[in-house]
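seq as requested:
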Amino acid sequence: MNVNEKVTVGLVDNTPKYIQWRGRNYTITQIGLHHHFREGKTLYHVFSVISGTLFMRLKLDTENLQWRLDGINDWLED
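struct tokens:
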């Protein structure tokens, strides 16, 4: 599901460790792929992460240092 909402991301050694979204905290238990791309002069970093049964795609805008939850899927949903 596409979300595109601002989130707070806690980092340890420049690696995402938790996400605060809609008043809840989600501990990141696994980091998958990481890639980056440019749109104009702005560099974005994209992380695929897992928290429990949730797969989340996080995007960091390096121009303003804001994180967005780009997408989320629950593995247990049919």
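The first strand starts at residue 2 and ends at 12.
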